[in-house]
Specification:
five-stranded antiparallel β-sheet; alpha+beta; single chain
Length: 510
């Protein structure tokens, strides 16, 4: 294919019809817009196919062919990113879900962009698409895999649990026992027993149960289950040429029990979720502990039936108390009484205002601080509320802080706001003059969330591990301290101070 980019084919066949013909999911004989994202999808699939041929060649001992097709895959990946990765580094092509699902699931996204692309996909699903899928045959097949890759299998559960159009839950609510050919009940091309959307079932084995081969015929395999908050159990088994591979887990409170079956002639690497609750356990004797972190304990085992115990992470939070709770998505209404500081934006870019008794959450009120990104409104008590804001300087002084903070400058209920990094002069030159002729001061607080979820990353005394630069909250029971950290951090009082003495704390990341 010239330039390694495909321009023909069906693409992501039959995503949801989001136009008037959808009619809330009922559809009509004209509903359906099946051809979608042809170039991105077919080019990504050609990358996947080149990889598959390389693996087959290696399994057959044909080293030269394996090298040839691995090189072809590398060429396609480079061409794909050069053509489709947008200048923002966080999206591909049109930005529709599948445009990021496939490159994330297939490992095509450059390492430096994975966090940004993943965050944008989550934003698209939860905000632009209201927690629904917007995928055709291939995007649906790999949706869970892509979200699992970025640690957001909770978002996949939100999509799968949705009972309104479009989604599997809507079909079930209409009496479906098998997947439909299109997402509407009536369409321009329909059956109500069509296999193509059943591909997502593979992720129930590979992501939720965590079973994946790492060698031909499951000679070696990994069991690495993803346990979304709210799901209490999962079980799956696969009949392989060596026998049955099985993985099942149950959650009681935060305690996890995992049972794994490995067939004769195979070996397995088992990842036991173990979030900050001491040592995991393995039985019977013979399991070799390979590693242990504040998040998981990894074992190497041979054939047999194995039982493990561990602990799952606490559920993520839409906003930690004191950290600008979200009050509305873009175009919604942020309802409150009295005066509140309102931040409107996303991805670290916010416009602020002190408002009374509610506000529309939109560009018309705040302007657009983050073009082409789904935004939201967040609330905080206005300065100088001592439980939210800390005075850091009087006018003409310097407000000193590390990392990123929201700074309010003003007095007597009149403030200008900015999200700043590494400190700032507390002057009219920086903020403008919100209340002329009056002595002013600067107050600071943690910035609004750059994403809609704070994800637990470590219990106290453990290490919160991540790549890149992230906002980290440390605390519990509504009291948190915040730092912007690069490359992970110990989750300790020594690093953050002690926001709530005498209480067990945890670290959360955006």
């Amino acid at each position: 294919m010239p330039g390694s980019i495909w321009t023909t084919g069906f693409g992501d066949w039959c995503p949801p019809d989001l136009g008037p013909n959808a009619n809330g999911g009922q559809g009509n004989p004209s509903a359906g817009a099946c051809q979608s994202e042809v170039s991105i999808v077919n080019t990504a699939l050609s990358f996947r196919q080149a990889q598959a041929v390389a693996k087959a060649a290696a399994a057959l001992g044909r080293a030269a062919d394996a090298t040839r097709y691995n090189q072809l895959a590398d060429t396609i990946r480079a061409a794909f990113n050069a053509r489709f990765l947008n200048a923002d580094g966080a999206s591909y092509g049109s930005g529709r879900q599948t445009t990021s699902v496939l490159p994330l699931a297939f490992g095509m996204v450059p390492d430096a962009n994975v966090t940004a692309v993943g965050a944008r996909l989550v934003d698209t699903i939860l905000n632009r698409n209201g927690g629904h899928l917007d995928t055709g045959i291939f995007g649906t097949r790999y949706l869970v895999d892509a979200l699992a890759r970025i640690g957001r299998v909770d978002v996949a559960m939100t999509v799968l649990d949705s009972t309104s159009y479009p989604g599997f839950g809507y079909e079930i609510g209409r009496g479906a026992t098998t997947p439909w050919e299109q997402w509407t009940y009536v369409s321009n091309m329909e059956t109500h027993d069509h296999a193509m959307f059943a591909g997502i079932n593979a992720s129930l084995y590979t992501s939720l149960a965590g079973i994946q081969p790492t060698g031909p015929g499951y000679a070696t395999l990994v069991v690495d289950p993803r346990v979304p908050p709210g799901l209490q159990r999962a079980a799956a088994s696969i009949d392989t040429v060596r026998g049955t591979v099985a993985s099942s887990w149950t959650v009681t409170g935060r305690q996890l029990a995992l049972d794994v079956t490995v067939p004769v002639g195979s070996t397995a690497t088992v990842h036991v979720p173990n979030f900050g609750r001491g040592d995991a356990t393995a039985s019977p004797a013979g399991a070799t502990q390979v590693s242990a972190t504040g998040v998981e304990t990894v074992y190497a085992v041979g054939s047999g039936v194995w039982h493990f115990t561990g602990a799952v992470a606490p559920a993520g939070a839409s906003a930690l108390p004191g950290a600008w709770p979200r009050c509305a998505a873009e175009t919604g209404t942020c309802a409150f009484t009295g005066a509140q500081a309102v931040a409107y934006g996303a991805a670290g870019r916010f416009a602020y205002a002190t408002l009374s008794n509610g506000t529309a959450c939109g560009n018309g009120v705040f302007s657009d601080p983050a073009p082409n990104v789904a935004k939201a409104c967040h609330l905080a008590a206005p300065p100088p509320a001592a439980d939210t804001w800390t005075q850091c300087a009087t006018e003409t002084g310097t407000c000193v802080f590390a990392g990123t903070a929201t700074v309010a400058y003003g007095a007597a209920g009149q403030y200008r706001y900015a999200t700043l990094t590494g400190g700032t002069p507390c002057t009219n030159a920086v903020f403008g003059d919100p209340v002329p002729g009056t002595g002013k001061a600067c107050h600071l607080t943690a910035p609004p969330p750059g994403s809609t979820i704070w994800t637990p990353c470590a219990d106290e005394t453990r290490t919160c591990a991540f790549t890149g630069t992230r906002e980290v909250a440390f605390g519990a029971a509504g009291r948190y301290t915040y730092r912007r950290v690069t490359g992970g951090t110990p989750c300790t009082n020594a690093v953050f101070g002690d926001p709530v003495p005498g209480t067990g704390k945890a670290c959360y990341v955006q």
